[in-house]
Write a structure and sequence with these properties.
A seven-stranded parallel β-sheet has the order 3-2-1-4-5-6-7, sandwiched between helices. 48% of the residues lie in helices and 14% in strands. By secondary structure, the chain is α/β, with parallel strands linked by helices. The termini are far apart. Helix 6 links the parallel strand 6 and strand 7. The chain has a single domain, classed as NAD(P)-binding Rossmann-like Domain (Rossmann fold), CATH 3.40.50.720.
Length: 263
């Protein structure tokens, strides 16, 4: 599906799924407004898009700062006049068992993954109403299954699922669609970001490599879902199985997770 000259705003677009979606939208003819904290990485993505003949611009945005979000939206509107697609993708994962996590760990996790996402929606929606556009929220399969060692992350993504469900009702009849996307294991830098949000390039990724989708493959699925205005999307194949078991056979799911969890 071509989207010539539609304006797509993506948070957390400097790496991983955000970067991959930016490249995919640009390939389909979209004008991509990329935002994140790391401007140097954003500019690399912009150069890659422009080098392939696409249109893109980088914007600083820290979703921990409401004024930063509002300012970013104002700049995008000032440059392009509209937003047709807004993707609340920025996020990270706090790691640690319940007894080890601090109040600060929980506060930062929810501030980025929940409040930051909600404020992204808040400031994008007035412009999406004008274009009858598309809103997308990036959740996780972790929203539906037990998450020993990453319970804060799982809780934040469960909140994303509920926000998405609520928006489907709030936006009914407005022409604005809301797509909540729950990926399974996908190549990204999320495991290399510590509980304070600092990036460690040499930090190992504990997720099973044999179950990992390339970000480019995931981006195609996600972009298609957004453009088709789907309501809820779950992938990968293993992710779908996990969600099914978590919903219909929670006892079995808990036993499976327990067996896979280091004691």
């Amino acid at each position: 599906m071509k989207i010539n000259n539609q304006v797509i705003w993506i948070t957390g677009a400097s790496s991983g799924l955000g970067r991959a979606m930016a490249l995919e939208f640009a390939r389909r003819g979209g004008i991509v407004a990329l935002s994140a904290r790391k401007m140097d990485l954003l500019e690399e993505v912009v150069q890659e898009i422009q080098g392939a003949g696409g249109k893109a611009k980088a914007y600083f945005c820290d979703v921990l700062d409401v004024q930063s979000i509002a300012s970013c939206v104002e700049q995008v509107i000032g440059d392009f006049g509209q937003i047709d697609v807004a993707i609340a993708n920025a996020g990270f994962g706090v790691i640690g068992k319940m007894e080890d996590l601090t109040a600060e760990d929980w506060s930062r996790q929810l501030a980025v993954n929940v409040t930051g996402l909600a404020m992204t929606c808040k400031y994008a929606l007035p412009h999406l109403r004008k274009t009858k556009g598309r809103l997308a929220l990036i959740g996780s399969v972790a929203a539906f299954v037990p998450n020993p060692g990453i319970s804060a992350y799982g809780a934040s993504k469960a909140a994303v699922q509920n926000i998405g469900e609520s928006l489907l009702v709030e936006l009914a009849g407005t022409g604005v669609s809301c797509t909540t996307i729950h990926p399974g294991f996908v190549e990204s830098n999320i495991a290399r970001v510590d509980n304070s949000g600092r990036f460690h390039p040499d930090r190992p990724d504990p997720r099973p490599a044999n179950l990992m989708w390339p970000a480019e493959k995931a981006a195609k699925v996600m972009v298609n879902a957004i453009l088709k205005r789907k309501k809820i999307v779950v992938f990968t194949g293993h992710g779908k199985v996990a969600v099914f078991l978590g919903k219909y056979f929670p006892g079995i799911m808990r036993k499976l997770v327990s067996k896979m969890t280091p004691k």
